[in-house]
Each structure stands twice: as C-alpha cells, then as structure tokens.
Design goal:
4 domains; 8 helices; Elongation Factor Tu (Ef-tu), domain 3; alpha+beta
C-alpha cells in the first residue's frame, strides 16, 4: 500500500502540468496538436487557460492547507491564528533601549522627544530620544530611552555600539551600556508555537502551555505586547508554580502586583487565563546573567566586506542568538543543569561568514551554568583580532 503525507494532498498543479494534461486530452480526442505552429492561436489559448487554472489550483491548495496549522504559512497562517486561535501575528517593532549621555562641559541642553539623534557607526542605524532630555554642563544622564528610526531587527545594536552623535551637542558623548534589540514581524514558526500553546491554555488542568501562552500573549492597557519571548515554569510540589519570564533583551521590568508594569501585566494574565483552583501561580522576571564575549577569528579574505562590516555582522548574529537563549539555559538531558555553551557561541561566530574557518572564544572561558531562573544577556562583544588570509594559506599553514 502506497504511503503519503497530508502535505502531498495540498500541492498545487503547475501551469506546465495543466498544459500537458490539456494536450493529452486533445490527443485522446484525435486532435493533431503537432501540426500547430509556435505562436498559433490554439497554443496561446491553451497557455492562457493553463495560467488561470494554475492560479486557481494554488488558491485551492492554500485554502485546504489552512485547515491544518502545520501546513499553512504566510498570510493564510495569519488568518488561521486570528479566526481559529484568537491570536494576532506580532508586528515588527522599533529597537529600543537605554543610553548614557555625558556632558564634559558643553552647553545647557534641553531636548524634546525626537530632537536627539544618535548613531551606530558600524551599522549606520540611527536612534532618537523618546523622552525630554535636560542635560547641564558636567552632568551625566543614565537610562535615557531611545527608539530606532527604522523598524525591525536590522536596528539592533550590541552594547557600546551606539557611540556617535548626529545632533550637534558640544562636549557630549553617548554610549549604550546594554544591547538595543529590535524585532521583525513574527515568523511563521513562532506564531505556530503560540497557536499550539493556546490549546494548552484551554485545559482546566493547568498544563505548562497554559502559563506560557498567558504571558507570551499578555497585553498592556493600550493593547501592545509586553514582549515576553521566553518562559520557564517551575513547581515546588506544594501547589506553587512560578513562571519566569524574559524579553529579547532579558529582564521583564516591574512588580508582579503592579498592573502598570509589564511584570504586573504578565502576572495578571496568569491569574486570569492559566492558574487553576488550588494552585498559587506567580509570574516573576528571569535574572539577567550578563556575558562579555571575547573572540579571535581566522577567515579567508574573499568575503568582500570591510573589517567593520565583518564585526557588525558577527555582533548581530551574537545578539540574536543570546536573545533567543532559554531561561535556565540549554539542557541536554532531564535532570542536568542548564548551560550557555561556549561551543555554540563559537558556532554562531563561524556561521556568520562561510569564509571563517577557525574561531577561538576566550570569554566566557567555559560553558556558563545557569540556574532555573537565570537568563543570559549580552554585556559586550570584543573581537581581539580577525585575521584575513588568502585561501591558499589557511589556519596553521
């Protein structure tokens, strides 16, 4: 008996297949299609009909696939998530973060939101201040919120990357102590995961997916997402459950009892959507464990990129990787401690360019062990050297 998968049933027929079938049918009817010259009207009509039928076939295949979460994608998946699971695809967001401004003795500056423009010279991405700034001579302002001028993950900057002023402020310097992370529109994989978790949230027995679904879909009063991307749920066996939450940047700010904070919104979502009777459930932020990555790389000099571009690409890859690390680290087996693996960091750097053939990571010096409530964050990335050599040489040649 032949075996096939469900996906085999939702493959659209191509224009060429339809065209071949029409010619076969005409041949059965005795029509001598071989006598038609190229460009003949009957041939043009068959091609036109095949194009239209192929479009209908693709539409029918998409409609059929939309009945199955694992088979659908793109805009059809967006509709399935909305009308079947009650979820909306997360839109792209502007990278946001905090910078430090230091005035070594320049003027007395007062800037309205958007008046200050700072830049990451490596990526050429710019950012504007989100709040009013009042900076006097000799003063230093920390935790100044900024927003990228371009939406999406392309405006992500690692720690210390934003260090140039576009707006002229004599005597003022700028830096970002922590990473500034943006986000592209939610991927199909992520949206499918949230849809699957949504089913767990419907159970009266309180499975892990219910807690995860509640906090990942929690919304502020204005309808915006609190940005939770990682959740680790623990239980103590006495009816107490804690859901540790983290954003792409790390810590989820606020107080579980304060609904005006993101952590309070997450905790409220758990109480309303997930916590069953006789269980005390609480949302808490994961504890950031900052990591400074120091590496040295060897690569062939055929990439066509400048040193600054190479460093910026590697930095972006590391920022994205750290932002996706699970709370409590990676666990190769049940019962083992979670870790941020040094080999994985080396692989991320090596995978940034096909020309890279050797990488040494000196910090962290070994695998980083993480407790169940800890999440790695990026404190900085320092390339000690990136050696570019002709292909004939290679490492150790």
């Amino acid at each position: 008996m032949a075996t096939f998968s469900l996906s085999d049933l939702v493959v659209p027929v191509t224009r060429q297949q339809i065209q071949a079938t029409i010619y076969q049918a005409l041949g059965v009817l005795g029509v001598r299609t071989t006598s038609w010259k190229p460009g003949a009207v009957p041939r043009a009509i068959i091609v036109a009909v095949s194009v239209v039928l192929a479009a209908f076939s693709a539409l029918i295949a998409d409609i059929a696939a939309a009945g199955f979460l694992e088979l659908t994608s793109g805009k059809w998946l967006t509709l399935v998530a909305r009308y079947v699971y009650g979820l909306e695809r997360e839109v792209a967001i502007f990278a946001s973060g905090l910078v430090t401004l230091s005035n070594s003795g320049g003027g007395d500056y007062t800037l309205d939101p958007g008046d200050l423009i700072v830049r990451n010279p490596a990526t050429n991405r710019t950012y504007r201040n989100a709040d009013v700034i009042e900076l006097g001579p000799g003063e230093t302002l920390t935790d100044v919120p900024i927003l990228a001028t371009e939406v999406g993950s392309a405006s992500t900057s690692g720690p210390g990357g934003v260090d140039e002023l576009v707006t002229t402020l004599l005597g003022v310097t700028v830096t970002n102590p922590a990473a500034i992370v943006g986000r592209d529109e939610e991927t199909d994989t992520s949206l499918k995961t949230r849809c699957s978790e949504r089913l767990g949230a419907l159970s009266p027995m309180g499975p892990w997916d219910a807690y995860t679904s509640a906090v990942r879909n929690a919304r502020r009063a204005d309808g915006s997402s609190i940005g939770v991307t990682r959740v680790r749920t623990t239980k103590d066996g006495l009816g107490n459950v804690t859901a540790y939450c983290a954003t792409a940047s790390g810590e989820l700010a606020g107080d579980p009892e304060d609904l005006d904070t993101d952590l309070g919104v997450a905790n409220d979502a758990i109480q309303r959507w997930a916590a069953p009777l006789a269980v005390t459930a609480t949302a808490d932020t994961a504890i950031p464990v900052p990591q400074t990555i120091v590496y040295e790389a060897w690569m062939y000099n055929t990439s066509g990129r400048t040193l600054a571009e190479i460093q910026a690409t590697i930095l972006a890859k590391l920022v994205a990787y750290i932002a996706a690390q699970p709370i409590g680290g990676n666990k190769p087996s049940s019962g083992s401690s979670g870790k941020l693996y040094q080999d994985a960091l080396r692989a991320v750097i090596s995978g940034s360019f096909p020309q890279i053939f050797h990488v040494v990571v000196t910090s962290p010096a070994a695998d980083v062990e993480l407790d169940i409530d800890e999440v790695p964050t990026l404190a900085g990335v320092t390339p000690t050297a990136i050696h570019q050599v002709p292909p004939a040489e290679g490492y150790g040649a």
